[in-house]
Please model this.
Amino acid sequence: MDELSEQYFVQTFVRKSRRERLLFELMTPRKRYDGISRFCHQADEVLDHSKIIMSGEDIDRLPEFERFVRTHDEICYILSPDGFVDGQSVPLKDAVQMAVMCPDAVVIIGSSFAMVFGEPAKGGRGKYLLAQQRKPAEEIRKY
Model:
């Protein structure tokens, strides 16, 4: 568990009114799994929308997303209810591949950005790309 990365994610990309609860759940071992899972199920309500630069079910297949991954080649920290990927620190490209293949929700935390892959469901899988400095409103992409 990388507490600094988790605190950075919550303080930077989560709505102010939801931060305290999520931090409590992430830092409490017996509540951690449920906290991550609940966050990913409610990501649209919990995330700070002013930080979203891309969202939709298929953003990982878009050229803009692929370009973002190539230009942000760094080690990222992964949060997930899936114990196989939770807590790993891997290059962004590998983290995205793991998230796409993971049967559970995944949060990828970089130095100035984050990605949220919701739990796969019948209606699709919500995905969000967030960055500290957002583009103007007309440039935000929803797919």
